[in-house]
Amino acid sequence: MNFLEFIRPPKKAGKGAPEPVPATADTLRTALTEVQQSGPQEGLRIDGREATEPALRDGLEATYRQLADQAQSRPERIALVDQANEVRGWTLR
Length: 93
Prior knowledge:
This protein is mostly helical. The protein has a domain at about 50-93. The N and C termini lie far apart (about 30 Å). It contains five helices and two strands. It has a two-stranded antiparallel ribbon.
């Protein structure tokens, strides 16, 4: 069994509370690695996205950009934008 067979939607911290963004980034990064190694998982959704490489890349890029917007320092913001650019799907096409 692999990661994608065990993943469950994250539990919310409270009524209507969103999952923290860093956990989403970790989840998407792990799922992307698994999909790259094992192939897409038809019918499985992770954080509302299909378990395919393009969909997970798009979600991870958006998450890194959201984190960059919230960064407390310029070096942190630059590092997060670099991560977003690295995972960006169209960079690879």
